[in-house]
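Consider the tokenized backbone below.
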């Protein structure tokens, strides 16, 4: 039964989670949302110092959170992040495969290295981290059939479905994440593990700030978003927490797009001066 604190049911009480890329941005928002629902969380990130500071911030709010260094391109690091959760709390219930990067260049000028770097983190990293988590969950179920079920959430993007010509590696990797999400949902269903994805639109992160550098750029972003504003990382975190919870107990193999209506749009909309 979920615990109750201040009249609010905590849907993830007793659960443990690993969030890759959890040091900042969407990853940190996901970790915070899971914590606020009662989960204990490992913030796994290649930037250990920032992950440690973020874990301390969550601890200051009264949550159980620790940091682990993790380069998701390396199987050993993914295994170690999972092991950190098991070492701290005895099990793993939830993985959020969020770590991702983007490198932009005109298609004819994009280097092989840039393409490999993006696909290595965004797609191979999802494969490795999800496989590590799933193996732990399967082992838990074998050792204790009463353990329950696992939840894996991948981080896709609206760019899995729509293209921007200067981010070929990103587009390709996120399309691959969607395919991998569906494949894992089928493969892991017999083991009691649900796998779903979240596809953000334009969210207020450092990545977006790097492209929305002036009013004109911000206007272009808002013109493709029917709701007329940029999303907040917490709005992704809340959807991730939902997918991790029993409220989504009959959902698997789905990608939920959190995009302010962007994918429904086949035209741009006027943006009033001073909006956003």
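A designed sequence for it:
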């Amino acid at each position: 039964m979920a615990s109750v604190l201040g009249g609010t049911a905590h849907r993830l009480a007793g659960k443990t989670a690993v969030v890759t890329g959890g040091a900042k941005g969407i990853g940190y928002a996901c970790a915070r949302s899971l914590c606020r629902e009662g989960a204990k969380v490992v913030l796994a990130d290649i930037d250990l110092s920032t992950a440690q500071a973020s874990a301390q911030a969550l601890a200051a709010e009264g949550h159980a959170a620790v940091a682990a260094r993790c380069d998701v391109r390396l199987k050993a690091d993914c295994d170690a992040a999972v092991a950190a959760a098991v070492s701290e709390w005895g099990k793993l219930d939830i993985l959020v495969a969020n770590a991702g990067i983007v490198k932009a260049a005109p298609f004819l000028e994009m280097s092989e290295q840039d393409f490999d770097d993006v696909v290595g983190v965004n797609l191979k990293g999802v494969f490795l981290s999800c496989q590590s988590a799933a193996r732990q969950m399967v082992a838990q179920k074998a050792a204790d059939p009463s353990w329950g079920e696992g939840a894996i959430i991948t981080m896709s993007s609206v760019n899995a479905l729509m293209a921007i010509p200067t981010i070929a590696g990103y587009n390709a990797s996120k399309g691959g994440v969607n395919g991998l999400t569906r494949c894992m949902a089928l493969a892991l269903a017999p083991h009691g593990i649900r796998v779903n994805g979240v596809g953000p639109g334009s969210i207020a992160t450092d990545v977006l700030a790097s492209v929305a550098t002036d009013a004109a750029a911000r206007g272009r972003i808002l013109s493709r978003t029917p709701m007329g504003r940029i999303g907040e990382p917490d709005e992704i975190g809340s959807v991730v927490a939902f997918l991790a919870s029993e409220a989504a107990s009959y959902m698997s193999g789905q990608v939920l797009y959190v995009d302010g209506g962007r994918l429904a749009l086949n035209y741009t909309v006027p943006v009033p001066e001073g909006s956003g």
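Helices lie at 25-36, 48-60, 75-89, 112-143, 168-188, 206-211, 215-223, 233-244.
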